[in-house]
Every structure is written in C-alpha cells, then in structure tokens.
Protein 1
Amino acid sequence: MEQRIVRVLRHRVGKNERAAKPYDWYNAAVYALRDDVIDAWIASTTRTHEAKEKRVYYLSLEFLIGRLLRDAMSNLGITGEMAEALEKHGLDLAAIEELEPDAALGNGGLGRLAACFMESLASLDIPAYGYGIRYVNGMFRQRIDEGWQVELPETWLAHGNPWEFERPESAYPIGFGGEVVTEGETSTWLPNEVIEATAVDTPVVGWRGKRVNTLRLWTANALDPIRLDAFNAGDYFGAMENQLRADTLVRVLYPADSSPAGQELRLRQEFFFSSASIQDIVRRHAQYHGDVRTLPDRAAIQLNDTHPSVAVAELMRLLIDVHGLTFAEAWDVTKRTVSYTNHTLLPEALESWPQPLFERMLPRHMQLIYAINAVVLKEARAAGLSPEAIASISLIDEHGERRVRMANLAFAGSHSVNGVAALHTELMKETVFSDLHALYPERINNKTNGVTPRRWLQQCNPRLTGLIREAIGDDFLDDAEKLEALNSHADDAAFGERIDAVKRENKVDLAAHIDELMGIRLDPDALFDVQVKRIHEYKRQLLNLIETVALYDQIRSHPERDWVPRVKIFGGKAASSYHNAKLIIKLANDIARRVNTDPAVGDLLKVVFVPNYNVSLAERIIPAADLSEQISTAGMEASGTGNMKFALNGALTIGTLDGANIEILERVGADNMFIFGLTAEEVAAKRADGYDPRSVIEGSRELAQAVHSIASGVFSPDDPARFAGLMDGLMTSDWFMLAADFDAYAAAQRAVDRRWSDRAAWRSSAIRNIANVGWFSSDRTIAEYARDIWKVM
Ligand SMILES: *Cc1c(COP(=O)(O)O)cnc(C)c1O
C-alpha cells in the first residue's frame, strides 16, 4: 500500500513526497485504494451481466453520502494497512480523512436514507444503481453570524473529486417544451430545448467488499455550449446562454423539502434526472435483453418520494412513442416495474405542479398523464367510489387553479406504495391516500427505515465496536441483530463501567472539537443532551429550547438543589425561505449566549448550536450523546433515522410516540426510554376539538414564565421584540402542540435526571438500547424491499 501511494502520488497527482501537501496525500490515498475498488466493481458488473440478474434502480433527488474514504477502507478491511502506510510518511490517517469534503447532495433524512440503502444494497450483494443529480454546490453550507443562519455555497468539488468517473459515452438528450406531432396512431414529441445529461459514476462498496454498485449522478451540458455567431458579434453572455441554462439545472439542491417548491427550476431538475435515468434503464434493457416487454423481469425502479414521479410518464412515453407498445401494454409494464416510497403526510409537502406550467414544459407527458387519469378514474367509477373519492384520486386537482398531483401519479403508476414506519403507513391509509387505498387495497405496505451499522456504529464509533467485539464476538458485524447477545451483559457492572468509559472518551473528543470550532469549553462529565436534525417546527426544537429556559430559571431560583449538569447540543439547517425555522436558530444562539456566560449557573447548564450539521458532524456527535431528543408532534415524523443512530450508539431517547420511535420502544422497552406526550390520535382529536393553547400556557407556571421571558426580550435585549411573534404564534394557534406537551416533556426530563444520577441504571439502559436496535439496520429494510417489492431475493 505504501509503495502504491508513493507511485500514484508521483504519476497521478504529479508530486514527489517532498512537495506533497496534505491534500495531495489524501488524493494519493484514494487513488491507491481505488484500484481495489475498481477491480471489485468490474467483477460485480460482469457477474450481474453474465447471470442476467434483475437490477434495482433507486431514483432519488438526494443522496447524502458524506465522506467515502473511511467507508471504503473499512468495508474493504484495509484501514489498518492504510494507517500504517501513511504513518511511514509521518501522516495521521484521521487527519487525512478530515480533508475529504462532505458530499452534501441532500437535505436530511430522506437523502441519508438513500445513502444507507445504497450501502446495504451492495452489502447484500444486490445489483443496483442509484440515480440522482451531481449538484455542483449541493446543499448550502451553514454559517452562524451573530446567531443567525447564513447560507453559503458548498464548494465540495473545488479540489476535484477522486471518487468519480465521468462517462461521456453515457449521455442522453433531455427535452423541454415544444409540441407534440401526431400522425395516425403515433405521437412524437418535438421539444424546443434540449440539454444533454451525462453520467458521472461513483462506486459504492459493500461490507467486506462483497459487491461494488454504482451511484450514477447526472450532470448537464448544452448541446452547443457556445454560439460562435453571437460570440463573434460581441454578445459574449448571449453566446453562453445555453450552457448557463444547463449549468443552472445541476447547481444546487432546492433545499425546502416541506414547503411548496412552486418553481420551474425544481420541475426541470426533476424531469432532467428522471428522464436521463429512465432512458439509461430502458437502453440497458433493450441492449441486453431485447424486448422492452420483459422490463419488469429485469428491472425494479424505486421512486424515493414524489420528486421522480414524472419517471412514470417518461417510461410510458419511451415504451409507446419509441418502442411502439400500445398504451395498455406500456401501462402494464410500467406498473409492474415501478414502486414508490412516501416520506411525508404534511399536506404542504405533497408535490403538485400548475397544469399550465406542466403542459408548457412537458406537453407529451401532460397528454399521457391525462390518458393515465382516464384509466384510473374509470376504475374508480367501476369500483363504485363516491364523486368526492373520485375527485381526490384524480391525478389532476380541479380545486381552483388546476394542478398535477405527483403523489397520485406515483401511486397510480406503481405496484407498491410504501410508508417508512408502521404508524406512518397506517396514517397514509387513513389520511392522504385513503381513497387511493380503497381503490387499490393491495398496494400500500410498510417498510420501516433503517441505517447502515457500518457507518453508524463501526466507523463512527470504533471504541464501542471494539468493546462489543470483546464482549460478544464478531457475529454482529455481519448481522446487526446479533447485538442482542449484549442483553446478557446489561447488568454486568464491570461491563457497564467500560461502556461508560467509551462514552466519556467520545465526549472528550467531541468537546475538543467544539472547543476548537466555537471556543466553548464543555464538561465531559455533564449529560450531553442532543437534538440534531433539520430545523422544522414539527420537529419541535422550540419545545426543547423553552424547556431549556425553564430549566435555566429553575437552576437560578433553586441553586441549592442537586442539579444534573447538562450540555444542550443543537444542530441543523433551516430551509432558506423558512422564516420561523431561522428564528428558532437565532433563539438557540441567543439563549446560549446568555446561559453560557451566567455565573449563577456555571457548569450546570451549557447550550451549544453547532454550525453546519452534516454527515461528518453527525458521525462525531452521535457517539458522544447521552440523550437523544426525538420529540416531534405525534403523527408528523414519518420515521426518523436519527433516532436509530443514537440508540445504536448507546444514547437513551426522550421522545414522543411518533414515527419509528414507537417501534424502537417495542424493542428497547419502556424502562429504557423516556416516552411522553400526546399520541397521534390525541393530537388529531385536540385539533378537531378546538384547542386553546393560551389557557394551557397560563395553566403551567414554568411554561408561562419561560414563554413570557422569551417574548419580552430577556434573551434578546438588543431587539426585545425579536421573538414576540414566535411566542405569540404559540399562544394563538400552536399547531405543533408544544404547550399541550410541555408539562409531560418537562416531567420526562426530570425523570432523565433521576436515572442519570443512578449510574448503574443508566448504563444498563444504554446497553439495552445498543443490544435491541439491530433490527433497525438498513440491511433488514433492504431485505424486505428485495423480498416484497423488487422480487430480487
Ligand atoms: C440521520 C441524519 C438525518 C436525519 O435525522 P432525523 O433525526 O431522522 O431527522 C439528517 N441529517 C443527517 C446529516 C443525518 O445523518
């Protein structure tokens, strides 16, 4: 390995050892390792090809993959070899790993799920492609300026990217606009704008190098990047306009995943990557298997949320207009090939597009959607559904301005529609999809999310992994459910102390990182209480902050009590157009400024907002957490995956009966979690009854005092009215039921304090968390998709 590194340093990077900068060594390390990856990659592809295996295609607008070096080394089992090789040149592998930029091609849980799934697909030896967009700037980088979020472009490609392979031979024309010409039975779409999509491939290495799959991200180019006539006439900008329009498509990920996008660019992005991916899939099938009618035998296409829904119409167009199938044949092939995963029930997040925009941008697809709709509505009438049910099933929303409903299109065009946790799936049947479910009762099924234990245990927490191996052997490395063997050590005092020591070392590391980053000193013996995730009102960071203020008041009023020292750690990005979420970030920082400098509380309470939460930061924070905050309003978090990562690393959860928390509770047990608050049913009932938050707030002394102090500017003396509106929203509507859950939450926090003070009890609970969440491995999730939906296992 050492010789290889020196060789590639010279011949690829173009430097000798003396001239090489740390980043050159990083590149050399990746190139050296890459040879092994490529060999396994080619072997995997050849094997799939020769056996004519069915492939899985995972279409996702987001892949939050994070760094790849550690993942690839670990899965190939060469981390030690690499560390030794670098050490011979006086280099520390951990420091080299830090040089890799985070590939932040996603927003939050949905994108991270896609990344965990890609890793598990390779680990389970399932031939698969991930398809997405190669965003040049990805998700924005977050800076905190005077407590406010500032969005900066993420420049993850600034130094090039040694992991990717451009495939200029895999390029497809993507049309927009124009018209449809119909002659007899055949229709042809003549777009008035064409952009070329070119594949850029990244290898995804499975556990023990079993298989290497492909993440294929599309980049965009103009067919004529420069118009020389315009250029020569002095119109330099006009001459480049086409390339600029292409570049715009692959610049940034539109970061709002839960507010109406309403923007043409987003629809263009969705069609761009869906069309390129579908063309690639159909081309591969036609080339190797001939008849496109056998597509469902060789390909399973999974739509990750509705962003790629237009793929249903694009597949229909290719089958009918290019391959000559009848509409009925094409519809049958499409439904048997495609399946769809729903990720949210928030009505504002259910994508729909103004029909005139859709028609102008994709006239042929609009025709096909009307034709599909006719079939679906005919089936609905034949099933005897009511006019209201038929209207809600329609792919076209006729209320007010006509809109195309992407979730209905995805549902209609799929043989399987899955939710991502048991509660979420039941709510899908009862709420947004109740009428579609009545029409197609076999279609909805549940696939509870999971996370890859390689990244989220082995790689991010080597100390804990080592300790578990000593205790129960190596079986759990290949099957996370084998962690159950740890249950027999849950009450072993000596083992508990070692678990504690590992946690403390991880906390020391995190504290050092935070000190370096922000100049805040944290006490590693305090309870590290963590809420890191996108900032959204339904996730209720505000509930946590208000309770923090209440605790602060209590500590100041009763300094004589035996308080448990706490560090409150927050992190997460707010969508750039989401005003309240940004204000919540400011509030966290304003509270931190006041609390952290108040000598009356000293080390009893510290508040930290860590900027730019991303995968790499998650990998540092989660192993160091004692308490995991999963406190969404019940019924609103589809699953959550952060909850799984924390429990796997021995944090105890304080949480509501929402998403996968419920299933974690079933496995970990109520004695080892802090569950509080309204159920989803109770939330719905309260909303229906006319809930009055003001009276609830006035009825709770601690809550009233905290809300009033925030509203009156105690934490924002420079602008006393800054949070008045936010607090007024709580008083008057409180859609997310903070007030209703506050007392239960505060009581649960005091129960946390009591358990923490009983060290043996806390350690035992931590061990039982680790032992019983192996089921939340994405290997289990993917095995279920493979068996029930894709039929590849
Ligand atoms: C796991 C993960 C998420 C999802 O967290 P939730 O708590 O489930 O919302 C978001 N961002 C990053 C970087 C993650 O690793």
Note: The chain has a mean pLDDT of 96.
Protein 2
Amino acid sequence: MKRFMYLLFPCLFSLFLVDCAADGNGYFMYADFWCAVYSREQAQVEYLVDWYFNKEFMMQYNSTVGNWTGFTPAGLNTASMLNGDKYDILQRKIERQLICVNNVGLVLNITEENRAEPSVTLVETTSSSHETMLVCSAYDFYPKYIKVAWHQNGQEVTSGVTVSDVMTNGDWTYQVHSYLEYTPGRQDRVSCVVEHASLSEPKILDWDPSLNHSERSYLIGGVCALLLGAVFLSLGLIQYKRKSCDPRFSNTL
Ligand SMILES: *[C@@H]1O[C@H](CO)[C@@H](O)[C@H](O)[C@H]1NC(C)=O
C-alpha cells in the first residue's frame, strides 16, 4: 500500500500522464477524462475523471459532486488529500470549462448531424436450454443511447428480459438485442418498444402469437407444394386423356 501511494502522488500532479502509465514492467495506471452532456444547458454539463490503478477503479472526480470520491483504500486517501487542495479544485473547474463546456455545441451538432434511425425486428427463437424466446433487435442506430422495452398487455415487463451490450457495427452505428422468455400459446399481447433520439415517437412492434415465423414459412411452403402437385396432376391427366384419344395409341392397344 505504501508503495502504491508513493507512486500515485507524483502522478496525480503531473501533466505527463504517459510517464505514469508505464513503469518498467508496462501498464499500470490509466485515467479517463470525459464529459457527460445531457442537453445544451451548460450548467448541466458534467466533467468526470475516472482513475484506475492496476485496472481497478480507484477514484472518480465528478464536477456535479464537486470533488473526488475514492473507492479503494488508496483511492480514499488520495481523494481526501485532493479534496483539501484548493489548487486541484480550481484546476478541475478550469478543465471542466475548457474540455467540456466550451465544446458542448460542437459535440451536440456532430451527434445530431449523424443521427441514424434504428431498424427494428422481432422474431422467435429457441435458446440453448430449449426455451422459447422473443428477440427484439435494433440495428444501425446512432447515437449509442437507446431504450428497448417489452410490453405485455400494455404494461412494461422487466422479468425474464435479457439485454445484450450495445455493440458497435464497426462504423459509427450500433446494434442491440433484447430477449424475452416467452410461453408460446399464451394469449398475451406482447410488443417491443424502442425509444431513440432519432425517433419522434417510439417504434412499436407487436408480436403475432397465432403464427410464429417458422410456422408461417412451413405453411407457405406446404401450400406451394400442394399447388405444384395439383398443377402436375392436372397436366398429367390432360396428357393421359390426349393419349387415350389419339387413334395411333388406340390402334396399338
Ligand atoms: C455525478 O454525480 C451526480 C450527483 O451525485 C449524479 O447524479 C451523476 O449521475 C454523476 N454522474 C455520473 C456520470 O456518474
């Protein structure tokens, strides 16, 4: 612990974080400076510093709280030391202004210009444990924040719901998948409700419990086969009739 503290202090005051990020053995310290922007209201802009040591989240500065919060013993010590330092407090206020507040307009304009509407699908699937699940997927949306909810008879349900992480598509857009445990044959009205910044109102997809997609495709396949069979049968009959009327064939019989 002593050694950690000793290593930590000079780093916190250093502007050259790279020096702290690698000792002779490689990676050990990491800090993430970021802004949380909720609206164009500058007073609401939050400036945050997440501080990690050996990949452990040890303390955070949150400008709304106005000071550092420690999460590990070393983090608690360092946080209380920094919170008593009026220069650190001043430095973070200036950083908030320069890094976050001055760039809010720019960040929001870029976000708005690149907005992309999610395309939403709702299908039935079977999980590895052979349970039936409904999968609601939202594809190709931006920005990242999205809400995918399940409604059963008009009420939001949260039990039996699993949501994947929001995954990047490799470009600037994202996708997410939400799974609902589902008992086939129950006469519930189930729908998937997607809310996103690009949508003026939520996208709602209703599940049709009478026929799921695979049953529907079997049915369509069956009807097609039946029709095809009927066509061949009638062709065969016509041919047979022709042949039996043809005198050449009658003669040979
Ligand atoms: C910062 O602190 C405020 C007040 O406690 C809290 O509401 C907010 O969620 C925090 N911000 C983040 C990004 O955690």
Note: Residues 152 and 190 are 5 Å apart (CA to CA).
